[in-house]
Amino acid sequence: xxxxxxxxxxxxxxxxxxxxxxxxxxxxxxxxxxxxxxxxxxxxxxxxxxxxxxxxxxxxxxxxxxxxxxxxxxxxxxxxxxxxxxxxxxxxxxxxxxxxxxxxxxxxxxxxxxxxxxxxxxxxxxxxxxxxxxxxxxxxxxxxxxxxxxxxxxxxxxxxxxxxxxxxxxxxxxxxxxxxxxxxxxxxxxxxxxxxxxxxxxxxxxxxxxxxxxxxxxxxxxxxxxxxxxxxxxxxxxxxxxxxxxxxxxxxxxxxxxxxxxxxxxxxxxxxxxxxxxxxxxxxxxxxxxxxxxxxxxxxxxxxxxxxxxxxxxxxxxxxxxxxxxxxxxxxxxxxxxxxxxxxxxxxxxxxxxxxxxxxxxxxxxxxxxxxxxxxxxxxxxxxxxxxxxxxxxxxxxxxxxxxxxxxxxxxxxxxxxxxxxxxxxxxxxxxxxxxxxxxxxxxxxxxxxxxxxxxxxxxxxxxxxxxxxxxxxxxxxxxxxxxxxxxxxxxxxxxxxxxxxxxxxxxxxxxx
Length: 513
Hints:
alpha+beta, Phosphorylase Kinase, domain 1, Transferase(Phosphotransferase), domain 1, 3-stranded antiparallel beta sheet, 13 strands, ATP-binding, Serine/threonine protein kinase, Tyr_kinase_AS, protein serine/threonine kinase activity
């Protein structure tokens, strides 16, 4: 890897105006390729981030190519979890600069220093990282340097977090989007060239092999593990060689040990899949990871089914009456066995006892009906109280979600623009607060190309949540014309086979529930 970039002398940069448009205000940080400043657009008054590559590095073909690659990637990818780049130019002394969206927050590295993160919060952060990677990968890039320093977490007013993925400087084109790399000086990813940060590289990347999107997913697993554990997954003492040896010689770690016993099994399984040594054993796409994280977060946010112990049943009146009559009969028989039996009976019970006994016998006969006679065998000693079996009582209905009204407008509004605005609002919201099906429907709603729509529709069918049915049924009703120069072509041609399959799958899921 390249040596650290020397700092720009601040006394010569602070206050400097770049290209007559950007005034440098202060230094924000320094990386492997350049220094990042906070600047102000002179005419718009807008604060921006300006990254400058040092003049002494402009002659380094690899550094220059990375810087240009970052400028291209950040300009091409528009996503709420990626800091967008919008200007690029050359410096008079021979360097170059990149202007990007200025985002404020704390790095994930700083948050990791505070200790373990609750697993639900970790899922929410990781889902947003996966969301950003979905856009990066679909644009044809692999990030390759997804470190805690390159993940920024901003706090919203409502207490939730908004994640930004930064620094696409070492991003490389996916193999599927570019010819196989050749071992030439101008190629960023070649066999034998290691680009990345120790401890945050997939094994194949650390070994200098050509990587694809699944290398980034491995690092999502590392970051997720470290958030839950509050400590690094790999010891840094032995350097890259020791880390790679550890990756290759051990089983993929699951939940950190010791770990919070509330960490669900599905999350532990996902961690093991993400941290698999073999790329083929990892999830296929960042979109799959995002969907699974949201499913785990959402499905386990509900309270478990409550169980209550029913009180013992009230005493049987028939048994009480039988016991009373039996005791009275014993007294009568004892009195009759005396010499003055009749007199003893009258004295011992009194005159009123005879009609009372008759009433008991009559009541017993009335209550017993045709019941079989009680056994003369003494009953075994029974417990004083009878505990009924536990009965499952469904938990109370979930309270309304914070985005229910927005989801309703997205699904059922008759105005296309209203549906799009609602969909964008859901995508801008914290993924942890939006149901997975609603985010997928939102992505489908704002997608403007048929292949993108097909990917979202397939994800909706895979998720199998019947609440997405209205959106899919609306697609089925769309006109088969309206696209092309004269509106003669079907805007949803690539979806026509998928739509009925998806409707059938969601309908079956609804009927099953």
